[in-house]
Amino acid sequence: MRTPLPILERPAPPAVPFRRLTTLWVQITGTWCNLECAHCINASGPDDPWLKPLDGETIRAAIRDAARLGVKDVYFTGGEPFLHREILPLLGFALDLAPTTVLTNGTAITEAVADALAALAARAPYSFEIRVSLDDVNPEANDRVRGPGSWKKAVDAIERLSARGLLPIVTATEISTGGSGAGEGLSERFRRFLVARGIARPRVKIMPVFRIGRMPGDDGTRLSREMIEGFDLGLLQCSETRVVADGGVYACPILAGLPGARLSTGRLEAAFRPAPLYHGACVTCHQTGMTCRNG
To answer: Among the four 103, 104, 115, 239, which has the fewest Cβ within 10 Å?
Structure first.
Protein backbone atom coordinates (compact mmCIF):
# COMPACT_ATOMS: atom_id res chain seq x y z
CA MET A 1 0.00 0.00 0.00
CA ARG A 2 1.28 3.46 -0.94
CA THR A 3 2.11 5.69 2.00
CA PRO A 4 -0.09 8.83 1.92
CA LEU A 5 1.73 12.06 1.19
CA PRO A 6 1.85 14.48 4.09
CA ILE A 7 -0.51 17.47 3.95
CA LEU A 8 1.52 20.62 3.44
CA GLU A 9 0.21 23.49 5.52
CA ARG A 10 0.64 27.11 4.52
CA PRO A 11 3.30 28.73 6.72
CA ALA A 12 2.02 30.91 9.52
CA PRO A 13 1.62 34.49 8.30
CA PRO A 14 3.94 37.20 9.56
CA ALA A 15 2.55 39.37 12.32
CA VAL A 16 2.76 43.06 13.20
CA PRO A 17 3.77 43.79 16.80
CA PHE A 18 1.44 46.14 18.63
CA ARG A 19 3.31 49.37 19.43
CA ARG A 20 0.79 51.80 20.85
CA LEU A 21 -2.88 52.73 20.60
CA THR A 22 -3.05 55.72 18.31
CA THR A 23 -6.43 55.15 16.65
CA LEU A 24 -9.69 53.51 17.66
CA TRP A 25 -12.18 52.69 14.92
CA VAL A 26 -15.84 52.16 15.81
CA GLN A 27 -17.76 50.03 13.29
CA ILE A 28 -20.94 51.64 14.51
CA THR A 29 -23.47 50.23 12.02
CA GLY A 30 -21.54 47.11 11.07
CA THR A 31 -22.36 46.48 7.41
CA TRP A 32 -25.77 48.16 7.51
CA CYS A 33 -25.88 50.84 4.81
CA ASN A 34 -28.50 52.51 2.63
CA LEU A 35 -26.26 52.11 -0.45
CA GLU A 36 -24.86 48.98 -2.08
CA CYS A 37 -21.65 50.20 -3.73
CA ALA A 38 -20.02 47.96 -6.32
CA HIS A 39 -16.58 48.24 -4.70
CA CYS A 40 -17.56 48.14 -1.02
CA ILE A 41 -14.75 46.49 0.92
CA ASN A 42 -17.06 44.86 3.46
CA ALA A 43 -20.11 44.27 1.24
CA SER A 44 -22.33 46.67 3.19
CA GLY A 45 -25.94 47.14 2.16
CA PRO A 46 -29.51 47.63 3.34
CA ASP A 47 -30.55 43.98 3.60
CA ASP A 48 -29.67 41.74 6.55
CA PRO A 49 -26.17 43.05 7.32
CA TRP A 50 -23.72 40.23 8.01
CA LEU A 51 -21.95 42.40 10.61
CA LYS A 52 -24.46 43.83 13.07
CA PRO A 53 -24.54 47.39 14.44
CA LEU A 54 -23.13 48.13 17.89
CA ASP A 55 -25.20 49.35 20.81
CA GLY A 56 -24.44 52.71 22.34
CA GLU A 57 -23.12 51.46 25.67
CA THR A 58 -20.60 49.12 24.01
CA ILE A 59 -19.34 52.08 21.98
CA ARG A 60 -19.08 54.38 25.00
CA ALA A 61 -17.21 51.72 26.99
CA ALA A 62 -14.71 51.22 24.16
CA ILE A 63 -14.11 54.96 23.78
CA ARG A 64 -13.66 55.39 27.53
CA ASP A 65 -11.13 52.55 27.54
CA ALA A 66 -9.34 54.01 24.54
CA ALA A 67 -9.10 57.43 26.17
CA ARG A 68 -7.69 55.87 29.34
CA LEU A 69 -5.12 54.01 27.23
CA GLY A 70 -3.90 57.14 25.45
CA VAL A 71 -5.75 57.07 22.13
CA LYS A 72 -5.00 59.99 19.80
CA ASP A 73 -8.11 59.86 17.59
CA VAL A 74 -11.43 58.05 17.15
CA TYR A 75 -13.09 57.16 13.84
CA PHE A 76 -16.71 56.14 13.23
CA THR A 77 -17.43 54.01 10.19
CA GLY A 78 -19.83 51.33 8.92
CA GLY A 79 -21.89 50.67 6.89
CA GLU A 80 -23.36 54.13 7.02
CA PRO A 81 -22.89 55.72 10.48
CA PHE A 82 -25.78 58.16 10.11
CA LEU A 83 -28.27 55.28 10.10
CA HIS A 84 -27.49 54.71 13.79
CA ARG A 85 -30.10 56.36 15.98
CA GLU A 86 -27.47 57.51 18.48
CA ILE A 87 -24.89 58.81 16.03
CA LEU A 88 -25.07 62.46 17.10
CA PRO A 89 -24.80 61.89 20.88
CA LEU A 90 -22.09 59.28 20.32
CA LEU A 91 -20.07 61.73 18.23
CA GLY A 92 -20.48 64.26 21.03
CA PHE A 93 -19.32 61.69 23.58
CA ALA A 94 -16.21 60.89 21.54
CA LEU A 95 -15.43 64.57 20.95
CA ASP A 96 -15.30 65.15 24.70
CA LEU A 97 -12.40 62.68 24.88
CA ALA A 98 -10.43 62.77 21.60
CA PRO A 99 -10.23 64.17 18.07
CA THR A 100 -12.99 62.42 16.12
CA THR A 101 -13.76 61.61 12.48
CA VAL A 102 -16.91 60.16 10.92
CA LEU A 103 -16.96 58.50 7.48
CA THR A 104 -20.22 58.83 5.56
CA ASN A 105 -21.73 58.55 2.10
CA GLY A 106 -23.41 61.90 2.79
CA THR A 107 -26.90 60.83 1.80
CA ALA A 108 -28.37 61.42 5.27
CA ILE A 109 -26.78 64.82 5.86
CA THR A 110 -29.79 67.08 5.59
CA GLU A 111 -29.76 70.77 6.50
CA ALA A 112 -30.85 69.86 10.03
CA VAL A 113 -28.14 67.21 10.42
CA ALA A 114 -25.52 69.63 9.07
CA ASP A 115 -26.65 72.19 11.66
CA ALA A 116 -26.31 69.58 14.42
CA LEU A 117 -22.82 68.61 13.25
CA ALA A 118 -21.75 72.25 13.17
CA ALA A 119 -23.05 72.66 16.74
CA LEU A 120 -21.05 69.61 17.85
CA ALA A 121 -17.91 71.02 16.27
CA ALA A 122 -18.43 74.44 17.84
CA ARG A 123 -18.57 73.16 21.41
CA ALA A 124 -16.10 70.26 21.12
CA PRO A 125 -12.75 70.52 22.91
CA TYR A 126 -11.15 68.41 20.12
CA SER A 127 -11.11 68.59 16.33
CA PHE A 128 -13.97 67.11 14.34
CA GLU A 129 -13.56 65.77 10.79
CA ILE A 130 -16.21 64.51 8.36
CA ARG A 131 -15.25 62.37 5.37
CA VAL A 132 -17.77 62.16 2.53
CA SER A 133 -17.42 59.41 -0.07
CA LEU A 134 -17.70 60.39 -3.73
CA ASP A 135 -16.11 58.27 -6.45
CA ASP A 136 -16.26 60.52 -9.51
CA VAL A 137 -16.88 64.16 -10.36
CA ASN A 138 -19.23 62.93 -13.09
CA PRO A 139 -22.72 62.04 -11.76
CA GLU A 140 -23.29 59.13 -14.15
CA ALA A 141 -19.89 57.57 -13.47
CA ASN A 142 -20.33 57.90 -9.71
CA ASP A 143 -23.88 56.54 -9.69
CA ARG A 144 -22.88 53.48 -11.70
CA VAL A 145 -20.72 52.55 -8.72
CA ARG A 146 -22.71 53.92 -5.78
CA GLY A 147 -26.33 53.84 -6.97
CA PRO A 148 -28.81 56.26 -8.60
CA GLY A 149 -29.03 59.67 -6.99
CA SER A 150 -26.05 59.16 -4.68
CA TRP A 151 -23.87 61.77 -6.45
CA LYS A 152 -26.32 64.61 -5.89
CA LYS A 153 -26.91 63.72 -2.25
CA ALA A 154 -23.18 63.48 -1.55
CA VAL A 155 -22.42 66.77 -3.32
CA ASP A 156 -25.28 68.48 -1.47
CA ALA A 157 -23.81 67.20 1.81
CA ILE A 158 -20.33 68.46 0.91
CA GLU A 159 -21.72 71.90 0.12
CA ARG A 160 -23.85 72.01 3.28
CA LEU A 161 -20.90 71.09 5.48
CA SER A 162 -18.58 73.51 3.73
CA ALA A 163 -21.09 76.33 4.13
CA ARG A 164 -20.90 75.74 7.88
CA GLY A 165 -17.11 75.81 7.93
CA LEU A 166 -16.71 72.08 8.51
CA LEU A 167 -14.39 71.52 5.49
CA PRO A 168 -15.24 67.88 4.73
CA ILE A 169 -12.64 65.49 3.34
CA VAL A 170 -13.91 64.12 0.03
CA THR A 171 -12.83 60.49 -0.21
CA ALA A 172 -12.64 58.65 -3.52
CA THR A 173 -11.49 55.20 -4.57
CA GLU A 174 -9.37 54.66 -7.66
CA ILE A 175 -12.11 52.50 -9.15
CA SER A 176 -12.73 55.08 -11.90
CA THR A 177 -9.08 54.80 -12.98
CA GLY A 178 -9.06 51.03 -12.76
CA GLY A 179 -6.61 51.27 -9.85
CA SER A 180 -3.96 52.17 -12.39
CA GLY A 181 -1.96 54.41 -10.08
CA ALA A 182 -3.58 57.58 -11.40
CA GLY A 183 -4.34 58.77 -7.90
CA GLU A 184 -2.55 62.09 -8.27
CA GLY A 185 -4.54 62.96 -11.40
CA LEU A 186 -7.78 61.86 -9.75
CA SER A 187 -7.03 64.03 -6.74
CA GLU A 188 -6.48 67.06 -8.96
CA ARG A 189 -9.75 66.41 -10.83
CA PHE A 190 -11.60 66.48 -7.52
CA ARG A 191 -9.85 69.63 -6.37
CA ARG A 192 -10.80 71.47 -9.55
CA PHE A 193 -14.36 70.21 -9.28
CA LEU A 194 -14.72 71.36 -5.66
CA VAL A 195 -13.23 74.78 -6.32
CA ALA A 196 -15.65 75.23 -9.23
CA ARG A 197 -18.52 74.59 -6.78
CA GLY A 198 -17.32 77.36 -4.48
CA ILE A 199 -15.32 75.28 -2.02
CA ALA A 200 -12.20 77.39 -1.63
CA ARG A 201 -10.23 74.96 0.53
CA PRO A 202 -10.88 71.50 -0.96
CA ARG A 203 -9.64 68.44 0.89
CA VAL A 204 -9.35 65.14 -0.95
CA LYS A 205 -8.24 61.63 0.03
CA ILE A 206 -7.72 58.92 -2.60
CA MET A 207 -7.98 55.26 -1.61
CA PRO A 208 -6.56 52.33 -3.58
CA VAL A 209 -8.81 49.54 -4.82
CA PHE A 210 -9.10 46.58 -2.44
CA ARG A 211 -10.21 43.39 -4.16
CA ILE A 212 -12.31 42.35 -1.23
CA GLY A 213 -15.99 42.46 -0.37
CA ARG A 214 -17.91 43.10 -3.61
CA MET A 215 -14.79 43.71 -5.68
CA PRO A 216 -13.66 40.43 -7.28
CA GLY A 217 -10.09 39.62 -8.20
CA ASP A 218 -8.17 38.37 -5.14
CA ASP A 219 -5.32 36.44 -6.76
CA GLY A 220 -4.43 34.58 -3.58
CA THR A 221 -1.20 36.51 -2.96
CA ARG A 222 -0.35 36.77 0.73
CA LEU A 223 2.50 38.43 2.56
CA SER A 224 5.36 36.17 3.60
CA ARG A 225 8.19 36.76 6.05
CA GLU A 226 10.55 37.12 3.10
CA MET A 227 8.38 39.83 1.51
CA ILE A 228 8.49 42.03 4.60
CA GLU A 229 12.14 41.46 5.47
CA GLY A 230 13.68 44.87 6.22
CA PHE A 231 10.28 46.58 6.07
CA ASP A 232 9.30 48.87 8.95
CA LEU A 233 6.14 47.19 10.24
CA GLY A 234 5.35 50.33 12.19
CA LEU A 235 4.23 51.85 8.87
CA LEU A 236 1.24 49.49 8.79
CA GLN A 237 -1.83 50.85 10.52
CA CYS A 238 -2.45 47.64 12.45
CA SER A 239 0.61 48.42 14.61
CA GLU A 240 -1.31 51.33 16.18
CA THR A 241 -4.98 50.74 15.33
CA ARG A 242 -7.72 48.67 16.88
CA VAL A 243 -11.36 48.34 15.80
CA VAL A 244 -14.38 47.68 17.98
CA ALA A 245 -17.14 45.92 16.04
CA ASP A 246 -19.76 43.25 16.51
CA GLY A 247 -18.04 40.15 17.86
CA GLY A 248 -15.03 41.79 19.48
CA VAL A 249 -11.95 43.86 18.77
CA TYR A 250 -10.18 43.58 15.44
CA ALA A 251 -6.82 44.59 14.00
CA CYS A 252 -7.98 46.53 10.96
CA PRO A 253 -11.01 48.58 9.83
CA ILE A 254 -10.86 46.93 6.40
CA LEU A 255 -11.12 43.45 7.93
CA ALA A 256 -13.46 44.16 10.86
CA GLY A 257 -15.82 41.27 11.42
CA LEU A 258 -13.53 38.63 9.89
CA PRO A 259 -12.44 35.95 12.37
CA GLY A 260 -8.83 36.04 11.18
CA ALA A 261 -8.54 39.71 12.15
CA ARG A 262 -10.23 39.35 15.54
CA LEU A 263 -7.80 39.81 18.42
CA SER A 264 -10.19 39.84 21.37
CA THR A 265 -13.79 39.01 22.16
CA GLY A 266 -13.67 41.17 25.27
CA ARG A 267 -12.05 44.42 26.38
CA LEU A 268 -9.95 46.64 24.16
CA GLU A 269 -6.71 46.09 26.06
CA ALA A 270 -6.88 42.33 25.46
CA ALA A 271 -6.39 43.06 21.74
CA PHE A 272 -2.98 44.67 22.29
CA ARG A 273 -1.10 41.77 20.74
CA PRO A 274 0.46 41.02 17.34
CA ALA A 275 -1.85 41.21 14.33
CA PRO A 276 -1.45 38.51 11.66
CA LEU A 277 -0.94 39.71 8.07
CA TYR A 278 -3.06 36.88 6.77
CA HIS A 279 -5.31 38.56 4.21
CA GLY A 280 -4.93 39.78 0.62
CA ALA A 281 -5.81 43.30 1.80
CA CYS A 282 -2.59 43.27 3.84
CA VAL A 283 -0.66 43.04 0.56
CA THR A 284 -2.33 46.23 -0.72
CA CYS A 285 -1.50 48.12 2.47
CA HIS A 286 2.11 46.92 2.31
CA GLN A 287 2.52 47.83 -1.37
CA THR A 288 0.76 51.20 -1.35
CA GLY A 289 1.44 52.52 2.15
CA MET A 290 -2.31 53.01 2.46
CA THR A 291 -3.85 54.13 5.73
CA CYS A 292 -7.56 54.44 6.51
CA ARG A 293 -6.79 57.50 8.65
CA ASN A 294 -7.21 61.01 7.28
CA GLY A 295 -3.54 61.54 6.50
So the answer is: 115
Query: Which of 148, 156, 168, 45 lies closest to 109, judged by CA?
Result: 156
What pTM does this model have? 0.93
Which of 123, 129, 125, 83 has its CA nearest to residue 103?
Answer: 129
For residue 113, give the amino acid letter. Answer: V
71-85: buried (b, 16+ CB within 10 Å) or exposed (e) per residue? Answer: bebbbbbbbbbbbbe
Domains and CATH numbers, the chain: 15-288 (3.20.20.70)
Which residue type does 197 have?
A: R
User: pLDDT, tens digit, for every residue of 109-155?
Assistant: 999 999 999 999 999 999 999 999 999 999 999 999 999 999 999 99
How does DSSP classify residue 203? E
Task: Please say whether the beta carbons of 170 and 190 come within 8 A.
Answer: yes
Contact present, 253 and 245 (Cβ < 8 Å):
no
Three-state DSSP class for residue 138: coil
The reply to whether omega before 79 is within 30° of 0 (cis) is: yes
Beta bridge partners of 23: 73, 241
Confidence (pLDDT) at 176: 58
pLDDT of residue 110: 98
Where do the DSSP E strands lie in the chain?
A: 15-16, 23-27, 73-77, 100-104, 128-133, 169-173, 203-207, 241-245, 248-250, 262-264, 275-276
